């Protein structure tokens, strides 16, 4: 039985490669001499398989809101919330103004933000940006060993 099943698989494979070869032949215009040459030699063109890479699907995480940003900065920096909140709001306002002016942002370790295109809509401006982040950007440390934000 194994010989028969092996023969069937080989036959199925031959049919598949013949149909694949026939499809590729149909796409390219042929001359009479090239067809006659192939028939005389008895060889069919070799079909090379193409390797297809499958990337894993990424699941979008919830957006980072200003409230959560302030809490994370307070936690990481050790500053008081009443001191950190105005500074973060001012920084966000400056970043928004820079984007509105069409400026690129180069903020380590966040990365380099470049505006790809900008379009005015009835309810606001749509800005499409690209962000390039370095692969290995260790957090900057001071002489005392503490973590500090990059300037």
The major β-sheet equals: 3 strands, antiparallel
- Kindly report the average pLDDT value: 77
Strand order of the largest sheet: 1-2-3
How much beta, percentage-wise?
Answer: 15-25%
Contiguous low-pLDDT stretches (5 residues minimum) are none
Q: Helix- and strand-based class? A: alpha+beta
Total E-strand runs? 3
Helix content range of the residues, please? 40-55%
Distance between the termini: 74 Å
Number of domains: 3
* Oligomeric state of this protein: single chain
Q: Please report the number of helical segments.
A: 4
Q: Output the helix-strand order.
A: HHHHEEE
Compute the CA-based radius of gyration: 31 Å
Q: In one word, what is the shape?
A: elongated
Plain-language structure description:
By secondary structure, the chain is of the alpha+beta class. It folds into 3 domains: 2-41; 63-101; 104-138, no CATH class. It is built from 4 helices and 3 strands, in the order ααααβββ. It has helices at residues 2-27, 32-41, 66-77, 81-100, and strands spanning 105-107, 111-121, 124-132. It has a 3-stranded antiparallel sheet, covered by helices on one side. The longest helix is centred in the first third of the chain and has 26 residues, at 2-27. It is elongated and about 85 Å long. 1% of the residues are buried.
